[in-house]
Specification:
The protein is of the alpha+beta class and 850 residues long. Helices cover 34% and strands 17% of the residues.
Length: 850
């Protein structure tokens, strides 16, 4: 490589810094517009006035660049704990400094485009006079003898044109920036002179190489080096540098994206190499070696375009898309949505996100395994989101479909719809969460001071709509009909009903609550409908009929683990601008949605869910305390698992994107349909627990164990009517359980269910059982065990009505005084039994028992 040149300014440059633009303009006008003057009669004096009226300089501002998105990662390839997952840009450009550009590229652009660059002050008079001759012959402005500085001015206006918002604006501005007109050339010259007065040669060269169009939507020497040779600009060889500079005059037909352009590129490359040899920037040996290398598939080393989330890191494409669609929310990009969008379009930002690939990768792999994206029999979908408790940071965002927002769509395996998010952020119309939504009824129950050990009717039944209070919508007519998944019936505690997910318990709870308040609890914990509408509060909504997003459900369960503190999901920890300024990240937005006591008691109830049925498959069993709730809609169209620890909340959905396939009837990776969500949850939470190990869950609030319920009174010995009156006066519902065997007088209350002393909710049904009066106290037929023989004992029993008497044998030693006597009875004396009961008397004997 030749020695590094020091940029130098020639005599013209020095003079240009001293004389006025008015004097200089006379020289430029004479050289450039003599043909126009001859044709139109415009005077040189009037043209000088035009020249003086033009702006003196323009700023070398940042050009549109790539934005880079990073995720947390501890695996191979990470730098300081982060891995780049995507580049997003309008123009594929990464600005670099002068020292980050190969000297060969600098020498090539000077020799090939403006060999007197270091000797002029923005306008090359020698070239200008030569151009004037050509213009005179053609009677027009055919050539403007453009220097690199003039080209930089032109490219700056082209870049500005390409950044305008509408096609019409872009087309008009581009035409103005490229038209072969006297006014444009004059403006270009004056601005070039202004640039030379304001910036060093190094700065101008660097700006030119950073702004130049290298074809195929590639801008700047760094992006071109990476795109066409898979190296950085500083590592470009001589022939590579010349080949890239060969593109800039005709980027559409000399770029290296297609072999059909290779010959044209090589022709121009060799001209540049010859120029470099001619000016002495390379020697003959370097020239011969470089020119001998063909521009072909062997020398060109293309890197695939990596713009957009379709080209992002394979395990993070959905999160990438969510970041891009959230740009209007990023206050660090500007005060208004328009400013933020424009800043992002200008680019150069590095966004360090909350996504943690150490958990994301296992979650995404499990999603692809247990909800394959190539299912053709029906529209199978799956999505998993995790939100960090106490911060709102989104740690995981997985989906079974591949992200593809191209025109061809990518086929059945792909979609552009993010199932985790709301419609506003590219999401679907949402999915019914089923019983995972029941937690909000439980929370409102606790908010009202009611207890988890209060007992309620769990039997499926029809409930008049008038029994449901809804301050949002007013009273309901008709009847609310529902069933239980496992046909459960009877009385259960709220805790039992939650663990078993019994619909009847939650409808019983809802009749004692305000449905509007249940809705408000869910909303305060961040749950949102995917379509952006307000959550519904109809009776059916308590068992999960709102179409919600997995991301919002994850944030709600994260709030439970955070002691009731809900935090709005955020995705950017830190942003760095193109000028390397730290812009901070998204501010945390948290609120105390429910009390710590209610949150602790809710988590306590939900821990039992993981010990029941299929939900146990969600537990990583790694010693980290975890809570959760399952959810299955009618016909198993949608299945959910929502889980949480003190560090995070996770929501997983597996179901129908559209249609009504019963998920319980399918198998993937030898896993039955009901368990698919649990296997995904276990993989996700297991990975999270390694980096975010949760602590012990707080103890439930003692007052919320029993709540404000009423003890069932002791009604024994009362009549049925008396019992009914007492129960209804206490707010219970009465049910006649019928007669049962008992020693009490017929018609008297024997027992209740729930039993006396049980804490039960107001309105709970208490079943009362009365006596048949058919049990008699068994008399003592044994005595001292040495006096009554079998006949005597049988007579004693018979006198009390017990006619079914049998005999058993007990061997005793010779001389035992109990020989031949009754030593025991079963049932024993003093207990009560029906007279039809068989009583067995044990008789002692010395002989062996038969």
């Amino acid at each position: 490589m030749s020695a590094q040149k020091t940029p130098r300014r020639g005599i013209f440059s020095a003079v240009a810094g001293l004389i006025s633009f008015s004097v200089l303009s006379g020289v430029l006008v004479t050289a450039m517009v003599a043909p126009a003057l001859a044709v139109t009669g415009i005077t040189a004096t009037s043209t000088i006035g035009i020249f003086d009226g033009l702006p003196d300089y323009l700023e070398l501002d940042q050009q549109p660049e790539r934005n880079t998105i990073y995720a947390q990662y501890t695996g191979k390839g990470n730098v300081d704990g982060y891995l780049p997952i995507a580049t997003i840009y309008d123009q594929n450009r990464q600005e670099v400094s002068y020292d980050e550009i190969s000297e060969f590229a600098v020498e090539a652009v000077v020799a090939g485009e403006d060999r007197r660059f270091f000797d002029h002050g923005g306008v090359d008079l020698t070239s200008l006079v030569r151009a004037a001759v050509g213009n005179f012959v053609s009677s027009g402005i055919e050539s403007g003898a453009s220097t690199l500085t003039m080209q930089l001015v032109k490219n700056t206006y082209i870049s500005e044109a390409e950044s305008l918002p509408t096609e019409d604006e872009r087309s008009a501005a581009y035409l103005a920036a490229t038209s072969q007109s006297f006014d444009r050339k004059l403006k270009e010259m004056k601005l070039a002179i202004g640039l030379e007065k304001r910036y060093t040669k190094k700065e101008i060269l660097t700006a030119y190489l950073n702004i130049a169009n290298f074809g195929n939507a590639t801008y700047g020497i760094q992006a071109a080096a990476q795109r066409y040779y898979s190296v950085d600009a500083k590592d470009l060889t001589l022939e590579q540098s010349a080949s890239l500079i060969a593109i800039v005059q005709e980027p559409s037909i000399r770029n290296l994206s297609d072999p059909e352009y290779y010959a044209a590129n090589q022709d121009r490359r060799d001209v540049i190499l010859s120029a470099m040899l001619d000016v002495g920037s390379i020697d003959r040996e370097q020239y011969d070696e470089a020119v001998a290398i063909q521009v072909d598939e062997e020398s060109v080393d293309l890197s695939a375009p990596n713009n957009g989330c379709t080209s992002a890191y394979k395990y993070a494409k959905w999160f990438c898309d969510y970041v891009v669609k959230s740009v209007p929310d990023f206050e660090f990009l500007g005060d208004t949505v328009d400013e933020r969008n424009e800043s992002w379009k200008q680019g150069g930002y590095k966004l360090y996100t909350t996504l943690d690939l150490d958990a994301q990768i296992p979650s995404q792999k499990a999603t692809w395994t247990y909800a394959p994206n190539n299912e053709t029999a029906f529209s199978l979908g799956s999505a998993t989101s995790t939100v960090e408790s106490g911060t709102g940071r989104v740690l995981v965002m997985a989906e079974n479909k591949l992200f593809n927002d191209t025109l061809d769509g990518g086929g059945i395996e792909s979609t552009a719809v993010n199932y985790n998010t709301s419609y506003e952020y590219g999401g679907s119309s949402g999915f019914q969460p089923g019983s995972t939504y029941k937690v909000f009824t439980l929370i409102e129950w606790l908010n009202q001071g009611k207890g988890i050990n209060e007992r309620l009717e769990g039997t499926a039944r029809d409930i008049p709509g008038s029994q449901f209070l809804d301050s949002c919508n007013g009273p309901y007519g008709g009847t609310v009909e529902f069933g239980n998944n496992a046909n459960e019936s009877g009385i259960y505690t709220v805790a039992e009903g939650t663990a078993e997910s019994i619909n009847g318990i939650f409808f019983s709870m809802a009749t004692q609550l305000d449905l509007c308040n249940i809705r408000n609890v869910a909303a305060s914990m961040g749950v949102e409908r995917a379509d952006g509408a307000e959550l519904e509060s109809f009776p059916s909504s308590i068992i999960g009929t709102n179409d919600v997003t997995p991301l919002s459900m994850a944030s709600a369960y994260a709030a439970i683990g955070a002691g009731g503190l809900w935090c709005e999901p955020i995705i950017i920890d830190k942003a760095i601008s193109a000028s390397n300024a730290d812009l901070g990240g998204q501010e945390q937005n948290c609120r105390q949605a429910i009390s710590p006591e209610v949150a602790a008691t809710t988590a306590y109830v939900l821990t039992e869910v993981l010990n029941r049925g299929n939900a146990a498959y969600s537990d990583p069993n790694d010693g980290i305390p975890i809570f959760g709730k399952t959810g299955t809609t009618d016909g198993a169209v949608h299945t959910w698992m929502a889980s949480g620890t003190t560090r995070y909340g996770t929501a997983t959905w597996v179901g129908n994107i559209s249609g009504f396939q019963d998920i319980s009837q399918v198998y993937y990776a030898d896993v039955q349909g009901y368990r698919l969500r649990h296997y995904i949850t276990r993989a996700t939470d297991g990975a999270l627990n390694i980096k975010y190990p949760g602590g012990a869950l707080p103890e439930p609030d003692s007052k919320l164990l029993t709540g404000s319920g009423t003890e069932v009174p002791d009604l024994t010995l009362q009549s049925l009517e008396q019992a009914k009156s007492v129960l209804e006066s206490l707010g219970f519902s009465f049910r006649d359980g019928g007669e049962v065997d008992s020693e009490l007088p017929a018609g008297q209350v024997v027992r209740t269910s729930p039993g006396a002393g049980t804490q039960s909710a107001a309105g709970a049904t208490v079943t009362v059982y009365t006596s048949k009066g058919n049990k008699v106290k068994i008399p003592d037929a044994v005595g001292d065990g040495e006096s009554n023989d079998f006949a005597t004992a049988q007579g004693i029993l018979s006198s009390s009505g017990f006619s079914n008497v049998s005999q058993s044998c007990e061997e005793v030693s010779p001389g035992d005084p109990s020989d031949g006597k009754v030593t025991a009875s079963s049932p024993s004396a003093g207990t009560f039994a029906k007279t039809s009961t068989t009583i067995t008397l044990t008789v002692a004997q010395i002989l062996p028992c038969p």
